[in-house]
Amino acid sequence: MRVRIISFGTNWWSAHSRDLNDPLCFRRNAAWFNSAGLKYGRRLRLCWVFPGHIRFNQTSGFHPEYPLRSIGRTFHCSEPNYLHGRTHLLISTPANVSTPDCFLVTVNERMHGQISFASRAWRYDGVRPISVSLRGPRYEAMVLMTSNDWIETGLGRWVVGQDCRSLVLDVARQGGNA
User: Fold this and answer.
1) What's the maximum distance between 2 C-alpha atoms anywhere in the chain?
2) Which of 93, 74, 75, 34 lies closest to 165 in space, CA to CA?
3) N or C: which terminal CB in the chain sees fewer CB atoms within 10 Å?
4) Would 147 be classed as within a structural domain?
5) Average of per-residue pLDDT across 24-38
6) Does any domain span residue 132?
7) What residues make up the domain containing 58?
8) Residue 176 domain-assigned?
């Protein structure tokens, strides 16, 4: 599966190899993780109602000091799987073909409006949640969606834009608000 990254979640962490005698253990065989989280001042809160994360391996070409360089890039990855109570999406290598099968998108209440997560109508059936943090009216949701899918918020329906690099309000397919 090929996934184009449109936006990341707030929560980042890494794991290194277990060989601490290796001076490059924090770079060689390292993995970097990203999931939904909520910032309150300087604190990060993991208020997962749908726990999960994406994982970048060393072979992915991901550079941890410059994560925003991966925005707009397409990667090969496995299908999302459910393990130990969490959804995992492993991003393995950069894709030479730029046509993605789906898009990794993060939405939140500040930029996209409120979502009623209690209702199944907040998303098209094809949208696959990877990680969702929710606390009161605040939320952050990382999802996989195709160019035909949509997410419904208080502002309207959001779809992947024509440029396949952003999430935009779809005025042509506006439905009832959530």
Assistant:
1) 59
2) 74
3) N
4) yes
5) 79
6) yes
7) 2-17+24-169
8) no
CA-derived radius of gyration, the chain: 17
pTM of the predicted protein model: 0.86
Q: What is the pLDDT of residues 75-128, one digit of tens each?
A: 999 899 888 888 888 888 888 877 899 999 999 999 999 999 988 899 999 999
**Total domain count, the chain:** 1
Query: Which contacts of 20-23 are long-range, i.e. CB under 8 A and separated by 24 or more positions?
Result: none
Amino acid at 132: V
- 3-class SS letters over the chain: CEEEECCCCCEEEEECCCCCCCCCCCCCCCEEEEECCEEECCEEECCEEECEEEEEEHHHCCCCCCHHHHCCCEEEECCCEEECCEEEEEEEEECCCCCCCEEEEEEEHHHHCCCCCCCHHHECCCCEEEEEEEECCEEEEEEEECCCCCEEECCEEEEECCCCCCEEECCCCCCCCC
Contact yes or no for 103/4 (Cβ under 8 A):
yes
Given a cut of 60, is residue 175 above it in pLDDT? no
Domain assignment of residue 178, yes or no: no
